[in-house]
């Protein structure tokens, strides 16, 4: 245990240089520079990456390894740790432990089970306890603005929420506006990110130039636009000092005479959290002019679009909340004659509607907003506006995270099978050529297959004289083959051996997932001509009970099975007994719409989608 602890402490400096400076300090500098971005994205990514590092048994590169980490070196525990890490990031960013659990359930996890539920809950509970301890330590003012508000960042519990039928009409209108704005935001962001990807591919100088350009535009807007706003006399019943003295507050002076404040500067010259707090504040119906709110909304909407995607760690939650709260306050002010709700509550509902229109998350966003504001009476209205905005926006495009996944070409499988998959079978989409190994295979054949392909799984088939007829043995993975080849336990003849030699020559964790970046590669292995002509028995390292489906199974059922079980490979076997024992292998890529469309160019997914909706 002492040796393990020493290794961890010795590697902290290297780990900070390579990772935390890039993400943590990049996020700190980006937020403090005034970019219109959020810190939740980098924190979620940081939590997931740390969990991934632990799930791979640590990192030998940074000497961050412990003996107990090897128990997590498997695919299932690695996925669970990453899910817990993302939940911890959300809980830390928003001080919303339950919202973090629901975010992991709704957005991060591809499959869910009861054991994962309590693990994520335990993780976020630890985050909440640590945050609470840090906030108590920082109450004396030693940590700047950190800790203000405790675990409730935007407390609205003092606002009395009483609503009637006319209020519901206004809220429905707000949800429709949020859905339209959210769909437009996702459409424009997709176009901008595609342009940014072309610019970023040209090298680091272009990335830096793009970031500097956006920084200059942001600075010009933040300092130049407040000049367009007129000075407003300080309210006589102001709760806090007017004009504001210090770093944060509702009433920024900005070139106004004594006793006056600039409402637009009060939004631009505050931190993003304080600007949201100003918009959510109750009893301030006349604090912001309508023209200032329109200018601020247009600026934040546009800056949020052009900022996301530059070479700065950033998230979308805070810009979306800012823009949504602004137009929510605009709607509340315009329709205040028919509604009794405070404009600050309309700002909260506007933020919820824009989040629903862009993120397309409902349960997690609802709980996160309630934990942020401590305003439980608003729960029915927040639920209603989220559902309306999501429903409206779904008619235009997908959620922003789904669009980014598609743009990056990641093989993400949806929770449900596409309607057109019901008209195809598993055997229709297997890609070839299929590479199989004999139960006792020549070393040269294995090395050649590993060098010319990037496949991670290979079917193993016993053939005569080992068996009378070809017989499927199971599936062997690339990593296990590399470990076996590296041991060079070869034979001169094609003879099936017992599995006992594996127990004698290999340890319990030799076939476990390697540490980050330190797995064996085929390029690292060298063989003589004599060794290439020798044989190796694959039976002891073959998974003899892989998941299989018959080639005539509906592709929709195969997709659901693949996703629910969290598989990497799904073997397709023939229906007729007189054929070769294996037809092909299904991986995530075989279920992707792009792959299916390349095999069936005349297939029209929209036709089957419309037919399923009509049915």
TrEMBL record:
<dbReference type="GO" id="GO:0034707">
    <property type="term" value="C:chloride channel complex"/>
</dbReference>
<keyword id="KW-1133">Transmembrane helix</keyword>
<keyword id="KW-0677">Repeat</keyword>
<keyword id="KW-0813">Transport</keyword>
<feature type="transmembrane region" description="Helical">
    <location>
        <begin position="293"/>
        <end position="311"/>
    </location>
</feature>
<keyword id="KW-0472">Membrane</keyword>
<feature type="transmembrane region" description="Helical">
    <location>
        <begin position="81"/>
        <end position="105"/>
    </location>
</feature>
<dbReference type="InterPro" id="IPR046342">
    <property type="entry name" value="CBS_dom_sf"/>
</dbReference>
<keyword id="KW-0851">Voltage-gated channel</keyword>
<feature type="transmembrane region" description="Helical">
    <location>
        <begin position="111"/>
        <end position="131"/>
    </location>
</feature>
<feature type="transmembrane region" description="Helical">
    <location>
        <begin position="169"/>
        <end position="189"/>
    </location>
</feature>
<comment type="similarity">
    <text>Belongs to the chloride channel (TC 2.A.49) family.</text>
</comment>
<feature type="transmembrane region" description="Helical">
    <location>
        <begin position="317"/>
        <end position="338"/>
    </location>
</feature>
<keyword id="KW-0406">Ion transport</keyword>
<dbReference type="InterPro" id="IPR001807">
    <property type="entry name" value="ClC"/>
</dbReference>
<dbReference type="InterPro" id="IPR014743">
    <property type="entry name" value="Cl-channel_core"/>
</dbReference>
<dbReference type="Pfam" id="PF00654">
    <property type="entry name" value="Voltage_CLC"/>
</dbReference>
<dbReference type="GO" id="GO:0005254">
    <property type="term" value="F:chloride channel activity"/>
</dbReference>
<keyword id="KW-0868">Chloride</keyword>
<feature type="domain" description="CBS">
    <location>
        <begin position="541"/>
        <end position="602"/>
    </location>
</feature>
<dbReference type="InterPro" id="IPR051280">
    <property type="entry name" value="Cl-channel/antiporter"/>
</dbReference>
<keyword id="KW-0869">Chloride channel</keyword>
<keyword id="KW-0407">Ion channel</keyword>
<feature type="domain" description="CBS">
    <location>
        <begin position="429"/>
        <end position="491"/>
    </location>
</feature>
<feature type="transmembrane region" description="Helical">
    <location>
        <begin position="345"/>
        <end position="370"/>
    </location>
</feature>
<keyword id="KW-0812">Transmembrane</keyword>
<dbReference type="InterPro" id="IPR000644">
    <property type="entry name" value="CBS_dom"/>
</dbReference>
<protein>
    <recommendedName>
        <fullName>Chloride channel protein</fullName>
    </recommendedName>
</protein>
<dbReference type="InterPro" id="IPR002251">
    <property type="entry name" value="Cl_channel_pln"/>
</dbReference>
<dbReference type="Pfam" id="PF00571">
    <property type="entry name" value="CBS"/>
</dbReference>
<keyword id="KW-0129">CBS domain</keyword>
């Amino acid at each position: 245990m002492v040796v393990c602890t020493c290794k961890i402490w010795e590697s902290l400096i290297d780990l900070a240089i390579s990772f935390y400076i890039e993400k943590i300090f990049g996020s700190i500098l980006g937020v403090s520079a005034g970019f219109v971005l959020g810190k939740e994205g980098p924190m979620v990514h940081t939590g997931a990456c740390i969990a991934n590092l632990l799930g791979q048994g640590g990192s030998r590169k940074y000497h961050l390894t412990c003996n107990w980490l090897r128990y997590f070196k498997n695919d299932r525990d690695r996925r669970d740790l990453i899910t817990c890490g993302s939940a911890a990031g959300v809980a830390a960013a928003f001080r919303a432990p339950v919202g973090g659990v629901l975010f992991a359930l709704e957005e991060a996890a591809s499959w869910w089970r009861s054991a994962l539920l309590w693990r994520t809950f335990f993780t976020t509970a630890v985050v909440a306890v640590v945050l609470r301890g840090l906030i108590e330590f920082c109450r004396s003012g030693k940590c700047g603005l950190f800790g203000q508000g405790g675990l409730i960042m935007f407390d609205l519990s003092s606002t009395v929420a009483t609503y009637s039928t006319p209020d519901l009409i206004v809220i429905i209108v707000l949800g429709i506006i949020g859905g339209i704005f959210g769909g437009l935001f996702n459409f424009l962001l997709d176009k901008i990110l595609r342009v940014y990807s072309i610019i970023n591919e040209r090298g680091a100088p272009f990335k830096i130039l793009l970031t500097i350009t956006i920084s200059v535009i942001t600075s010009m807007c933040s300092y130049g636009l407040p000049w367009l706003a007129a000075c407003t006399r300080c309210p006589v019943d102001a709760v806090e000092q007017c004009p504001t003295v210090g770093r944060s507050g509702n009433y920024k002076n900005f070139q106004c005479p004594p006793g006056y404040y600039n409402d637009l500067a009060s939004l631009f010259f505050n931190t993003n959290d304080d600007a949201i707090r100003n918009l959510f504040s109750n009893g301030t119906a006349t604090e912001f002019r309508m023209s200032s709110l329109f200018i601020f909304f247009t600026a934040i909407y546009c800056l949020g679009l052009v900022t996301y995607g530059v070479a700065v760690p950033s998230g979308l939650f805070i810009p979306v909340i800012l823009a949504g709260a602004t137009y929510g306050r605009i709607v509340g002010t315009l329709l205040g004659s028919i509604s009794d709700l405070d404009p600050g509550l309309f700002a909260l509902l506007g933020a919820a509607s824009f989040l629903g229109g862009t993120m397309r998350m409902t349960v997690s966003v609802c709980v996160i907003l309630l934990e942020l504001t401590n305003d439980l009476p608003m729960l029915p209205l927040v639920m209603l506006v989220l559902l309306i905005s999501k429903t409206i926006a779904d008619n235009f495009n997908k959620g922003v995270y789904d669009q980014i996944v598609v743009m990056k070409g990641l093989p993400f499988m949806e929770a449900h099978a596409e309607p057109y998959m019901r008209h195809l079978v598993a055997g229709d989409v297997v890609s070839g050529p299929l590479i199989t190994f004999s139960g006792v295979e020549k070393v040269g054949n294995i090395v050649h297959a590993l060098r010319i392909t990037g496949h991670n799984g290979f079917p193993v088939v016993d053939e005569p004289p080992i068996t009378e007829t070809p017989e499927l043995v199971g599936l062997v993975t690339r990593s296990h083959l590399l470990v076996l080849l590296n041991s060079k336990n070869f034979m001169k003849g094609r003879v099936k051996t017992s599995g006992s030699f594996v127990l004698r020559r290999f340890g319990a964790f030799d076939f476990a997932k390697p540490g980050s970046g330190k797995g064996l590669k085929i390029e690292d292995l060298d063989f003589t001509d004599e060794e290439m002509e020798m044989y190796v028995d694959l039976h002891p390292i073959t998974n003899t009970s892989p998941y299989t489906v018959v080639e005539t199974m509906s592709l929709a059922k195969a997709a659901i099975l693949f996703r629910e079980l969290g598989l990497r490979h799904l073997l397709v076997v023939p229906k007729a007994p007189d054929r070769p024992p294996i037809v092909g292998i299904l991986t995530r890529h075989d279920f992707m719409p792009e792959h299916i469309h390349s095999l069936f160019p005349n297939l029209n997914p929209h036709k089957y989608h419309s037919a399923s909706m009509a049915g």
